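Give me structure tokens for this 184-residue protein.
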Amino acid sequence: MHDPLFLSLWLKNFAPVGLPLYLKRAVSVFPQSRLLPGGVLRVYPIAFREAPLLEEYYDGDLDPQAAASRLQDHLNDDIAVQVQLRWDLWQWTGEWELKPSTVLLEIFAPHFETPRGEHVRLDLGPQRLYLPEPSSDQLRPIQSNIRSILHLATDLENELIAERKLLWTEDEENFAERLKALLD
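Here you go.
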């Protein structure tokens, strides 16, 4: 179960000129890691196979306004902005530990190649971070991680004014239904 877990959002009244604002709002609600802050801001033209137009590493929390300003310099209808962030999740290492986990936040202009056609996608890391650990009889750490996803999904939906969202993996269309079945 090393497949990544994704959260996709389709926005109401999406417009490419709004990419800096969408980035600013998404970063402002993302709970950046206190254990290991920092990450990377990238802007890609056309597809991820192209070299980035911008690649900036940062220490500490990414400032939402600064990220939006940097994106403004590269605004076009065929770009994607990708922000590598970290958040703190419970992880099993023989015992439960709160550790930083990498997330990729991607926002797509309309002419950037995306297979699902979403406007915003988050790669939330391996799905095992959100499923019960067979070696542990504790469910609270996983419940905490799931609550983190639900809280983030709600915050993003409200800030970005999403008309649709989907929690999914590459092997399943709807991961939320799988979670519900596991927890029932």
